[in-house]
Design a protein that fits this description.
Length: about 550
């Protein structure tokens, strides 16, 4: 054990300052993990923090395929000192704690993750002319100093600034020497068209990202935050509501406003949780609404909002793995900037890492019931899809014909109805009074194979009697039907083979059951059905396109 003598005077001394190497630091900070959409969002955050109401993102491509990007806003702008602070790595913290900006690094690191030359053009009410400052990584490497370039904005830059900053204040962020936007260098593309197509894909993804990330700001009817207009090349971005609240079949499953105390209980803040089950695919009001909702395992889970800005979505924060059965479930998780340290918000404002006690509270006290409800909604959707597909394709028609033709050759039992769902069953062991579902079906195609929404005890199959014919009910809600049957319903030979197997199991039961073994056969169906459910639990659900 080390014991420190507290009375002993320290002999520590201070050495000379050891400033980091400017070029190596500037280059190293390019690799902080930004993707393009997150980087642009970090710039937009700064515009919103500056009280902008209009933001436009312009892509410019030169005849030599050199890409430049301009992000202009009509915010409050900056004077010379403000400009210097904004361009400083680790700029001073804003007075407003609720600002979407956080660490004073986003503008620089987000920009240089994709470009080697970053410029700011700005003007506030106190300045008489536009100010411009530039970080050029090549210049930093040449002089090995944190030396910005001061210059006068070009005519094009002034024009772009004035097109948005109509009240004579605002900021224009300029990315030049862009070298990390595309997977290949411009000269490596086969043609100008293929190069333009790659840019178009980037724009389309950015449009969706901004519409989702700033939905509450873009939606004029949302009163939780200031309204803004964002455009790309002057084309307005439309708000995308991940919870589809305008859809009639969206269900609010649970809601909770939970207090969080920090600083030993001195301060109390709130998180808001709302769990929604989206409509089943067939229940969306329009095809466009269904497409925009983008229901999948990649979009289920928590949607994390910091100061009404979406910072992360599409997983369960490590609580669960994403599964198709929960693909309809999306959970709003909203909090204020005061809880940044509690949730360990990262530098890109793109992830949170809640404390273990918060995670456990969500798992134990909030999310279980919504997960069950969403799973049931999904299950009913699959049953409906299976039924519609079976009818559309006549999936069991061949089975019914083949089994009906061959049944007299293998049936070793006779059933005579004597009451509701009760028969006298005669086989090689004698005659017993036996309970079995008796069905009357005018559809002559459903003589032997009867798909049904659900069976009690979760059985996969069960014998029944249809208009006097021995038949089998097949449970469409059982995972075996959904994962094994559904993908092959259009393959008549395979479907007939599967149907024949289950029908044969029923007929074997009819031919051998007696008063002493009735219960054993019931247990056998339950046990086998349960085993099958476990055995195929890790198999993927059929892709939606395979079900159509």
């Amino acid at each position: 054990m080390i014991v420190e003598n507290m009375n002993k005077k320290s002999k520590d001394s201070f050495g000379e300052e050891l400033p980091p190497d400017p070029s190596r630091v500037a280059e190293g900070l390019r690799d902080t993990g930004y993707d393009f959409n997150t980087a642009i969002s970090d710039i937009v955050d700064n515009s919103i923090a500056a009280n902008a109401t209009k933001i436009d993102i312009t892509f410019n491509i030169s005849p030599m395929n050199e890409i430049s990007i301009y992000i202009a806003d009509n915010g409050t702008g900056m004077d010379e000192n403000g400009l210097k602070n904004a361009m400083k790595y680790g700029s001073k913290q804003r007075d407003e704690i609720k600002s979407l900006g956080k660490f004073g690094l986003g503008l620089k690191t987000a920009s240089t993750a994709f470009c080697r030359k970053l410029s700011l053009v700005t003007k506030d009410k106190s300045t008489t002319h536009l100010l411009k400052m530039t970080w050029d990584l090549d210049h930093i490497a040449k002089v090995n100093k944190w030396q910005p370039i001061i210059s006068t904005p070009s005519k094009d830059e002034t024009r772009i600034f004035n097109s948005i900053a109509t009240d004579d204040t605002g900021t224009l962020v300029i990315w030049e020497k862009i070298d990390r936007l595309l997977a290949k260098n411009p000269e490596e593309y086969a043609s100008k068209n293929s190069f333009n197509s790659a840019i178009k894909v980037k724009k389309e993804k950015l449009i969706k990202h901004l519409g989702l990330t700033y939905q509450r700001f873009l939606d004029k009817s949302d009163e939780r935050c200031p309204n803004i207009d964002i455009s790309i090349d002057m084309n307005p971005i439309v708000a995308i509501d991940p919870f589809c609240l305008n859809e009639e079949k969206t269900d609010l499953l649970a809601t909770k406003k939970q207090p969080i105390t920090i600083d030993d209980g001195k301060d109390k803040y709130w998180i808001i949780l709302n769990a929604y089950a989206l409509p089943r695919p067939e229940d969306f009001s329009t095809q466009q609404a269904k497409s925009q909702a983008n229901v999948s395992t990649n979009t289920e889970g928590f949607y994390i909002y910091r100061e009404n800005r979406l910072i992360h979505y599409g997983d369960w924060l490590g609580m669960f793995t994403s599964e198709p059965h929960y693909s309809l479930l999306r959970v709003e998780f909203s909090f204020g900037a005061e809880l940044d340290s509690t949730f360990n918000v990262d530098i890109k404002k793109s992830r949170i890492f809640p404390a273990e006690e918060i995670v456990n509270w969500i798992k134990d006290s909030f999310i279980s019931a919504p997960r069950r409800a969403a799973q049931e909604k999904y299950r009913m959707s699959k049953i409906k899809t299976a039924s519609e597909k079976a009818i559309k394709t006549g999936a069991h028609d061949t089975s019914n014909k083949v089994i009906d033709l061959k049944a007299p050759l293998v049936e070793n039992s006779q059933m005579t109805p004597i009451g509701k769902n009760e028969v006298d069953l005669k086989n090689q062991y004698g005659t017993i009074r036996h309970k079995i579902e008796i069905i009357s079906d005018n559809n002559r195609n459903n003589m032997r194979i009867i798909p049904i929404d659900n069976l009690e005890n979760g059985d996969l199959w069960r014998p029944c009697l249809v208009d006097g014919k021995h038949a089998v009910q097949i449970n469409q809600s059982h995972p075996y039907y959904q994962k094994i049957y559904m993908p092959i319903l259009g393959q008549k030979i395979t479907t007939t083979g599967m149907d024949a197997l289950l029908w044969a199991l029923c007929e074997a039961e009819n031919s051998n059951v007696n008063a002493q073994t009735e219960e054993y056969y019931e247990d056998l169906r339950v046990t086998v059905s349960r085993f099958l459910k476990k055995l195929i639990s890790d198999l993927p659900d059929p892709a939606e396109e395979d079900e159509q």
